[in-house]
Every structure is written in C-alpha cells, then in structure tokens.
C-alpha cells in the first residue's frame, strides 16, 4: 500500500501568516486591493518563494502570474490557483488560501521528489475582487477571452488610474504568451465564504458548479403625504409597499418548493426619506441565485406576479426590471470525481456543494475541465476582517488539492 | 333679519395670486423660506396693504408682524393669522391662506364700516415651517414663552447665518412689546393639508385640537453575509426584519381598535446597502399620532412587543427608542362652538376634525382660548408645488373666519 502524501501544514500556515502581514488591518483582516503597492508586495513574495524552489515564472498581459513545476513530458498543463487581492477590510484567506495551498502542493512535491507526467502550474489571477477596478474576475476573464485586454486596460479606478497604468506602476504588465497553452484541467481551492460546511460538520465541499444568477431592480411609486394629516387608509405608501414586497419575497424563498434559492434584498432607497412624510418612492434590488435554471425562471414568474398584486392592492405603480442574467455553471464531472476520490482517501467528511459566489474557476471552466475544493470558514464569515479557518480545514483542503493535482498530472 | 356679511372672494383670490408670485416656482408652487429676501417681500406687501387700510402695524423681537384693527373699547384682542413662510418647493396656500383670509376679513369689516368692541389683530408668525431654521413654529414658540428669544437668535441655517442676523438683514428685528397683551381668543384659518374633508365632501373642518405625537427610532442588527453563499434559512437579515416590522406596524395601524392612528415609517437606512450582501443593519423611524393619549400608550406597548417578537424570530438584535413625545392639544370649547355656529349660518357642510399637523395655533392655545378653521386642499396634497384649493373653499373659510371673529370681538 502506497503511503498517502500529505502537505506540510506548518509551512502552509507560515505562508498564510506571512502573506496576511501584507496589508494587515488593525482587526486582523487584510486590505490588499488589486494592482496596488501591497498587491505588488504579495506578488513579489510569491515569486521569491517560487524561484527559490526552482519553478518557472511567467507574467501575462493582464498581470496574471503563472508558476510552473515542470512535468516529465510536454503535455497539457494541470492548473491550480486563485487570487491574491482582497476586499477593502477583507479577510486573510479569501483567494490567497487557494494560491498558497497550490504553492504548498508544489513544494510538497519537491520535498518528496515526485515527478509528474504533466506540468503543474500555479496561477495568481489579477483582480478577482473587483473592488478597485470593475469588473471582478478580470484576470480570468481576459485569460479566457471573455474580456478584451485592450478594453480592460482602459478601466479606471476612482482616482482615474487605469488598469494599464496600475500594471505598469507595479511592474506587472507582462509579455509572456500563456493564453493559448493547452490545459488538461484546473482545480481551484477556496474558502466556502458561506456557513453550510461548518453547520453540517463537513471539512470539504466538492464543488459541482455555480449558481445561475438574476438581478432585479424594483421601483414603487405612490403619493407623498403628510404623516399627521393623512389617514393610513387613504395613503399610497411606497415604504409599506416595499416592506410587503420584501416580506413576500422572503416567504417565497423559504417555501420548500423554492429549493434553497438564494434570494436577497440587499440595497434599498426611499424618497423623500423623511420621518413625517409618507414616502412616494421606494427602490430595492433583488439578487436571486439557484442551480436550476428552470426553477429560477419559475420563481421569477412568481415574484413578478406577487409583487404586482401587492402594488395593486396598495394603489402603487410598480416597475420590475431584470438587470443581470448569469447562466448556471457546471463543473467537469471528471474533475469533480477526482476531488471526491481524493477526499475519500483522506477520510475527510465531504459533501457536494454549489458555489453561490463567482470565482476565477467559473471563467476557466469555459475553456478547460474545471472544479473547485471548498473548505469551511468560521461562521461563514467572509469579505470581513473576522474571516477565519482552522488548522485542520487548512490542511485538509491542501491535501485534497495535492492528491487531485497528482491524479490529474499523472 | 340681519344680512349675513360675506368676504370679497375676488379680492382674496387676487391677494393669494399676488403673494404666490413672491418665490414662485416653475411648477406653480412657492419657495419662500423664513427670513429670506423673499420672505421680506411678502412681509412688506402685507404691511403695505395693511397701512393703506389704516391698520396699526407692530413687529416683535422675533419678527412676528401684528396688524391691528382698533376696537371701540380697550379690551383684550381677538387674534387671527398664520405664517408667511413656505417649505422649499412648497405650495401657495400653506400658511399664507390664513394670513390673507385674516387680512380679507379686516378689509371686509372696513368695507361695511363695522365697528367691533374688541380690537382684532392679524398676525403673520415667523418661521412656522422650520425648513431653514429649526425648530418649526419658532415665532409662536417665542411669543408664548416656550422658546427663549436669546436662544432662538443663536440658531443658524446651513450657511451659518443666525436667526438674529437674518432678522437684521431683512429689517424685521422689531422692538414692539406685544407678548404680554391680553388675548381674548385666537382663530387660525389653514388648509387641511390632508385628504379627509375633500374625501367626505366637507367644506369646513372645525378643529377640536391636535394629535398627541410620539416618534421612535428602531435599530435592527443582524449579520452581514454573502448573498450567494448563505442559505436564506441561515441568515440574520436586518432588511427582512425591517420589512416584517413595517408590515406588522401597518397592520397594527389598520386594526379597528387602533382608531385611525396615524402611523408612518418615513425614513430608513440599511448597511452595507449592497445588492449582493445580506444586510447587518437596518434603521427606521416611526411617527405615531392620535388624539387619545391612552390609546397611544397602548399602541406603543403593542408595537414594542410585536417588533421584539419579530426580531427574536429572525435572530436579530433590536433597539427601540422613543425620541419625541408631544401631548394632545385640546382647543377651547367656546372657540370651537363659535366656529360651528358660523359654519351653520352659511350652511357649509362641516365636520369636527383633529389636526394631524402642528400649527402656530397649537402654541397660542397654551396662553389663550384658541381654535382653527380648516378648508380642504385638492387630494390632500400639501408641502408640494401641486397644492391647490377651489374658489368656493377659499371663500367659505374666510367667511367662517369673518363671522367667528365678529362674534368673538362683539
């Protein structure tokens, strides 16, 4: 029986600790926005470790960093990796965990002197968060041809600095041609950024794909009126309408037949927004996500009908606009099975899971067989300085990544 | 049988039209904020008409204007009047109708050469709206000793100009001692600023008093979470909590046992207020008004209980603070009966009504017998450029004011 390889969790924790110093916040989080000086420091540190270990480093035209551990044969590459940028006052694991778990895998293969048939390539994608430059997942979008690099270059931050200028400023406007290399598979490790795995006492999420997503904007129009002089029965109160709509949407989401749809009203505004004036305007957004496109379509029909009835009952005008439509993403069955087998070898408690968030892997899945490995994060908290993982989750994710990459690269 | 006197409605409409030019907006409304150059123009015009008619004009230390038509005897004065300032983009009738109806009454008495026993005094109160300088009803508050004049002087607008400086700039920092004169009664005419009279086909509202009022601020605290990765069942969503609270408050207000309580959620904010983040914070205000103090107390107990249950069910923290408490105002029974008799003489359809809004008369009622006469405004719209009245309502209110003042001054 072959001894199961394991990563060096001490080294991985040290790496995570070292990278967490770059942009560290007072509350133990990280602010390391894309293409800033701090992002450059994280990039430089990754390259320093990689070159010390003898890996070949390339930079493409959008600043994605490719770190290759050579294979025995000139075969399509097996890729892994994630992003190094963070949200403003974000956490120390979102993105960077996948990068450093990948680096740890490569270093472990060095430790045990393992030769793979296929090369394995660790990638640090540029600007996944989209906090400084919109859109998010920019490096992966350019790499997969979904966003033209010349278009990406022109995008500016709030200070008017363009992506191209920022890449030049930090010295990461690369010239290496990586985009068209054959890819055998891509596995991205990431924290779940949600509470499911921890709640169910699971260590690994085997990611089958990502939710389809629809965004709506709803406008309700009533009549402004004096709060003291207008009987409640004679009002056309846009805030009451909004409240009834949000309550109805929440009930719709909680129906068993709605199958764990992720339905969120996260943004709202009202007018005139004054304590003693009945509101004539209310605006709110709906973010709705599910893995089944048919269900999402049925729920859209239902929500349109329900909100329209509420508006009519309250004598309000309603406008419901769909403003974003993203299809379901199905990850590759072979990649998923590879992760499942790896998980079984280590006897980690694992479940299949659907990603509710967007990830670089979602773009890569459009050009190569792809899947993801999720580890839990404490209380599901992410995009927050309080983001945390345990040592055992940290090790488990990297071990499953190690075995999956080894299987795919053999 | 004595012929019933009537005002000259053509003259009153001309006066309303002329004053509506001072601060006229593109949409037919008025912006005439307190103690501005436009307020000065309205004040000057009122004084010009008054002096031309032989009335004595006095200005007190907060800029209230007192226009006296002498009586036969040196008896306590019968007062009327309202305010000349408007909301930003407000209407052409709120306040100024009561001033000009009062002026029209004095001019009618001149026309018919009527001598009253008591003097009758028309007042234009300073800064009723509170739009430029907070608090509202400032002139009446100072006149009745509820606000110290030295304190009022220090209050600044957003540009740092104090009330005293503004009074000096427009030349209305008066020195006449009016505050301690004996007052027999005060009757204020005003548009209803609500929809009740028009809805019930009534021409006159006989105002019995003003609602007690309580303001609350509610804070809900949950946990911010990713809209895509967090199942709806695992959330602590402050926006869902707020929506359920507002829906419950509206249902509470509509209960028959809540007796036409005026309950309004008019202002709200949420955090982080982002489309794809479950909100961890929601703040909203409650404005609750009723004529029965006991009922208001019971409703406060009920709303606190109901909102607390909702918060608990949704795993949210809740804080409910009462931030304003205003008692019921009961107007003087004799003044009310005087108005009722006047209304009957002209056969105007009339009902008793409670003011849901604050008025200068509410302050005056603390120092002298007081009541108010309401006329309808179209669709109840007020504090809005679309504010409108009909010629017949305009005439009816002034006629009832004429007869009431005559009765009180005889």
Automatic annotation (TrEMBL), chains A, B:
Gene3D superfamilies: 3.30.70.360, Zn peptidases (3.40.630.10). It comes from the Bacteria. Keywords: Hydrolase. It holds the Pfam family Peptidase_M20. Residues 214-312 form the Peptidase M20 dimerisation domain. PANTHER family: ALLANTOATE AMIDOHYDROLASE, ALLANTOATE DEIMINASE-RELATED. NCBIfam families: hydantase (TIGR01879), PRK09290.1-3 (NF006769), PRK09290.1-5 (NF006771). Belongs to the peptidase M20 family. This is M20 family metallo-hydrolase. It comes from Frischella japonica. The lineage of its organism: Bacteria, Pseudomonadati, Pseudomonadota, Gammaproteobacteria, Orbales.
